[in-house]
Amino acid sequence: MEQVYAESTGPTTINTVNPSNENKKMKESFREKLRCGKSQIGTIITLPCPETAEILSDAGFDFLFIDTEHAPLSIQDVQHILQTVQHKCPCIVRAPLHNEIWIKRILDTGPDGIVVPLVNSAEEAARAVSFCRYPPEGKRSVGIARAHRYGEKFSEYIDSANSAVAVIVQAEHIDAVRNIDSIVTVKGIDGIFIGPYDLSGSMGMTGKVNTPEVREAVRKVHTTCLNAGIPAGIFGIDSDAGARYIGQKYSFIAAGMDILFLGEKAREIIEKLNK
Fold first, then answer.
1. With contact defined as beta carbons under 8 Å apart, do 166 and 30 qualify?
2. Which of 32, 71, 88, 204 is the most exposed place for a label (fewest CB within 10 A)?
3. End-to-end CA distance of the chain
4. Do 152 and 144 meet the contact criterion of CB atoms below 8 Å apart?
5. What is the pLDDT of residue 11?
6. Is the pLDDT of residue 100 over 80?
7. DSSP for 169-190?
8. What is the pLDDT of residue 27?
9. Which domains does the chain have, with CATH numbers?
């Protein structure tokens, strides 16, 4: 039994941790949680700073969504973040584009899942899955990197990666909405992440995510996922949006992001002090 002692002005308190329970918790992967239908709350990482990710992993999020599409993160930045926080918090990484080279380089850093952006058809979804799975299930090429523990766990990773790594495709364009009935039938998709902001832009209403037209498009994707048994995820800019999506039975929600937390807290302090 591990004993943790807390300083106190009163009697010393001892918290005991059951190692077997902790190990059991750690063994339940992000992909397994998705398949079980457990609602997971994460946040988006955009800063190339492992310490920021470490702070957010300690905050209690179920997963971290590392963004290489819109953030200035290199492959090395992604790997450093994973090395810092992945033992505490599952991490999924959004690729910068639907591209085989980017996808395999990200996967070789060893994330728990990958998000492929701008998937607008069943054909594109199937291609994304193929880039993420080793043969015979796909066409992912073989390298030796962090995911393989630099060769030490090469065979173990190759044998387990196809069943362990979550493949999530992003529906963020009106074309994806139109083709969602066929996209959800693609074998190997573990989840569909809805991007309401880019979706609004593809509909000529950039940023107006609460208009009836955009909300209906989002609802169509979500309903189709629910009916097909495919976990659906979405971005919520704040806790109010996140709470609404929890109530709507989204499986994974990226609530806020590191730069928003930093800016909002700074402004809050300045406003209070100026008063």
1. yes
2. 204
3. 50
4. no
5. 42
6. yes
7. EEE-SHHHHHTHHHHTTSTT--
8. 57
9. 28-274 (3.20.20.60)
pLDDT in tens, 132-161: 999 999 999 999 999 999 999 999 999 999
Q: Find out whether 196 and 174 touch, Cβ atoms under 8 Å.
A: no
* pLDDT tens-digit series, residues 166-197: 999 999 999 999 999 999 999 999 999 999 99
Quote the tokens at residue 16: 């005991």
Strand partners, 236: 255
Q: Which residues contact 172 (CB under 8 A, 6 or more apart)?
A: 117, 118, 194, 195, 196, 197, 198, 199, 202
List the structure tokens of 47. 């800063």
pLDDT per residue as tens digits for the range 1-44:
444 433 334 444 333 344 444 444 445 789 999 988 778 999 99
* From 70, 87, 98, 222, the catalytic residue: 70
Map tokens 């077997």 to a residue.
Answer: 20
The C-alpha torsion from 69 through 71 and 74 to 80, rounded to 10°, is: -120
Contact between 13 and 23 (Cβ < 8 Å): no
**Average pLDDT value for residue range 62-78:** 97
The rounded distance, in Å, linking the Cα atoms of 238 and 19 is: 35
> Taking a C-beta distance cutoff of 8 angstroms, is the pair 81, 109 a contact?
no
Q: Specify the residue for token string 């097909």.
A: 228
Which residues are registered as beta bridge partners of 5?
14
**Which alpha helices (DSSP H) does the chain contain, by range?**
19-27, 30-36, 50-58, 75-85, 100-107, 122-132, 154-164, 174-178, 180-183, 196-202, 212-228, 239-247, 258-274
